[in-house]
Design a protein that fits this description.
The protein has 215 residues and is an alpha/beta fold. The chain has nine helices and eight strands. It binds BIS(adenosine)-5'-pentaphosphate. The site of BIS(adenosine)-5'-pentaphosphate has 36 residues, from helix 1, helix 2, helix 3, helix 6 and strand 6.
């Protein structure tokens, strides 16, 4: 099964599409953002430091996230969706080495293009089910019944600490300065596919499926 990277700025829809691929194709989502949010609740010093960095919208150090991905890849399997990783050239090199060590290949890097104005409105309207993690949006994807998760029926929802205007400005800056060079990095390796992330969720899903199913 293919191993892919979903590459795009905050709010591009990486998490939304990764969850669909998990449901529809049985792929494995590896989101460093989710892993770090779990680490934050561990009560350790590392967890507290990570929480502060994430709340400001800055990137966590390369060694921490490379370690998290290395651990997860060490558990075996395939059909990985790298969501929010890699985010720097150092992380991209490390991912290449980790995959090669395990005899795995990277099959596609899908860049999801979305303009900044749409990102701001997507991020400011986002909320997530506290129990199953399903992602919603106040305007574009509300729950079918107000206050009840469509997937698991939970009535508890959360909004992320870094989904505010100040942190988002930093997150976008971090993306353009440190992550966008990966577009050229993967283009040069003939691995990059570019899709329109501004389209509706189903259309974006179709574009990703077309990349994955390309003979
Ligand atoms: P992370 O959790 O990875 O966040 P992010 O990259 O900022 O991306 P988001 O989760 O905000 O957006 P998304 O693209 O998944 O969009 P979503 O599908 O939710 O990282 C958070 C932090 O952790 C970082 O700032 C950093 O501190 C740290 N970190 C993580 N990884 C790291 C790494 N590798 N190195 C260093 N630090 C790291 O969609 C957003 C909203 O839009 C939702 O409401 C959704 O319903 C809606 N939406 C989605 N698609 C569409 C569509 N097509 N049309 C309309 N609305 C849509």
């Amino acid at each position: 099964m293919a191993n892919i990277i979903l590459l795009g700025p905050p709010g591009a829809g990486k998490g939304t599409q990764a969850k669909r691929l998990v449901e529809q194709r049985g792929m494995v989502q590896l989101s460093t953002g989710d892993m770090l949010r779990e680490a934050k609740t561990s009560g350790t010093d590392m967890g507290r430091r990570v929480a502060e960095v994430m709340a400001r919208g800055e990137l966590v150090t390369d060694d921490i996230v490379i370690g998290l991905i290395g651990e997860r890849l060490g558990q075996g399997g395939g059909g990985f969706i790298f969501d929010g990783f890699p985010r720097t050239l150092k992380q991209a090199d490390a991912l290449g080495a980790l995959l090669a060590d395990r005899g795995l290949a990277l099959d596609a890097v899908i860049e999801m293009q979305v303009d900044d104005a749409a990102l701001i409105s997507r991020i400011s309207g986002r909320f997530t089910c506290a129990k199953c993690g399903e992602v919603y949006h106040d305007a574009t994807r509300p729950t079918k019944v107000a206050g009840i998760c469509d997937v698991c029926g939970s009535t508890e929802f959360v909004r992320r600490a870094d989904d505010n205007a100040e942190a988002l400005k930093t997150r976008l800056m971090e993306y353009y300065r440190k992550t966008s060079p990966l577009i050229g990095y993967y283009y040069a390796r003939h691995a990059l596919s570019v899709i329109d992330g501004l389209a509706e969720v189903d259309i974006v899903a179709g574009a990703i499926a077309a990349v994955l199913d390309k003979p």
